[in-house]
Amino acid sequence: MNGTHTEPPTSNAPPGPTRPEFWRSPLRGPWLTSVLGLVLLVGIAVLFATGLLSYAAYNPDLAEVNDKTPDKGLLGHYLFDWPTRPYWLYRLTQGVHVTLGVTLVPVLLAKLWSVIPKLFTWPPVRSLGHALERISLLLLVGGALFEFVTGVFNVQLNYVFPGSFYPLHFYGAWVFIAAFLAHTALKTPTAWRTLRRRGLREELRTPLSETRPEPADETGLVSPRPDPPTMSRRGALGLVAAGSLTLLGTTVGQSLGGPLRDTALFAPRGQRVGSGPNGFQVNTTATAAGVRESDIGPEWRLTLRRDDQEVVLTLEELLELPRHTVELPIACVEGWSTSDQRWSGVPLSDLAELVGPVDRPVDALVNSVQSSGAFRSAALRENQVRDPRSLLATHVNGAELSPDHGYPARVIVPAAPGVLNTKWVTRITFTETE
Description:
GO molecular function, one term: oxidoreductase activity
Helix content: 25-40%
Keywords: Membrane, Transmembrane, Transmembrane helix
Pfam families: Oxidored_molyb
Largest sheet: 5 strands, mixed
InterPro entries: Mopterin_OxRdtase_euk, OxRdtase_Mopterin-bd_dom, OxRdtase_Mopterin-bd_sf
Strand content: 5-15%
Structural class: alpha+beta
Number of strands: 10
Protein name: Oxidoreductase molybdopterin-binding domain-containing protein
């Protein structure tokens, strides 16, 4: 939104962007900045809420293997047992989070363009209050760029930042939202007055021939020496909207599926993959996970443990157990999801009963044979274990699992993030909940 300090004389400012007359666009001003800020205010509120839900879906307070953000302290005060109903819950919340985040990129860039003169205010610091405002602005702009850039790189599966995506994105979100809330509280009254003076409908009816610079005011956004306009504010907003709609159209198909899946050009895991019963998306292949042929060959065994009891099953013995079939999607943190797939396997609750009567709720720790990558182990809550649709699946769409989809057995849990649907399972340890 807008600043409140009056620009000082520029005679002592060095030539270049520190002088207000350097910025010549006739479109910059409190009105355009306020409109873009209002869009971001709504969009970022939804992003933050769905981001919190995404973190809660990992059940990070259940076990260390699920928690990729150590020492989160009070930042995890809102956590709750992630439900299994409706089964498409994570597909919806994370799909909205990623798709909206990508769609807002043009709006964010336009907002930064509209306020860029404020970043070069001269002198850089005029008072203690101004210094605090500059620091908050640095956290706001830096935090926004960090969150959007790391998010986009993660969606593209081309993450290049040091450290794990999970803690960096999580802690970065809290820093950014603190600066964002402070900025919103300070600037909303100014933006509200600006939009009341000149409504959106009125400006959208103004053609290029009647476009004029806004009156100079204390915000310092209006150029003292504007160039003639080459685009109306209506055109500028239309350009931003066109960019956002283009990104929406090339991203949303990864979550919605159907015919739109082929339009998910911006989502490398969102498009159709192969054909046949196993012809749907995978995040990590068996090769990338370090799964050797000997790990999932004839010598593979499934070990079930609870307290001092242990049962070891061969694949043939696992296939002889009573089986259920369910239709569930896989949804991942990158925003992509599959359509509903038909999984067949043994309910986790039945496996728990093999190592003791389930007279009390039990959690489960699932281990994979994979030797590299995150989430080689994952913990499931008792509500996930007892849900009859939670399976240790051996077949999908009527066929044996392929190695990339977790042969010989993988977990499938309704509404759980994809990484908790552990592939190449070799051990499940059940423990009573406290």
